[in-house]
Design goal:
The protein has about 150 residues and is mainly α. Helix content is about 75%, strand content about 10%. It is built from 5 helices and 3 strands, in the order H-E-E-E-H-H-H-H. Strands 1-2-3 form a 3-stranded antiparallel beta sheet. A hairpin with a 4-residue loop joins strand 1 and strand 2. It starts with a helix and ends with a helix.
């Protein structure tokens, strides 16, 4: 657990250093090479036409939000229509009730099966015995001693 936390912290420090390096390189570029038109790492702007302009290191992407909202609205309407058709279909409702009843019956059969309970307890006891035997083995003891020595 401590090792994972250390790796996570090192990865975070690495990302932070790379980000800081990119920021410093951008500042130096803007102050020495192109001070009249500084390059921004990123910027977001919304135009009056409804488009959103995203710029990352001078590259521009325009997103038409009005068209996306219209498309999402159409998708929502189609999904709602399909859901209403399925929800109000008596054949689907009958089959759903049939499946739920069968699942409940099978679950009760499993819960009330004494033979299954006995087998489960037997398997649990066998697994515990094997686990205890494994922990008591010489190989595990040797590994534990080696770890404690580290």
């Amino acid at each position: 657990m401590l090792r994972n936390a250390l790796l996570f912290m090192l990865f975070g420090a690495f990302v932070l250093m790379v980000g800081f390096g990119v920021y410093i390189a951008n500042e130096c570029f803007n102050s020495l090479i192109l001070p009249e038109q500084p390059v921004q790492l990123y910027s977001f702007s919304q135009e009056e036409s409804g488009n959103v302009r995203i710029q990352v290191l001078g590259e521009t992407l325009e997103v038409n939000t009005v068209a996306m909202q219209k498309y999402a609205g159409n998708l929502y309407e189609r999904v709602d229509q399909n859901w209403q058709a399925v929800k109000n279909n008596p054949q689907v409702n009958e089959k759903t009730i049939f499946v739920i009843k069968n699942i409940k019956k099978q679950w009760q059969d499993i819960k009330n099966n004494a033979q299954l309970k006995e087998k489960t307890i037997f398997i649990k006891e066998m697994a515990e015995e094997k686990w205890e035997a494994f922990l008591a083995s010489e190989r595990v003891k040797a590994v534990n001693q080696w770890v404690q020595g580290q």
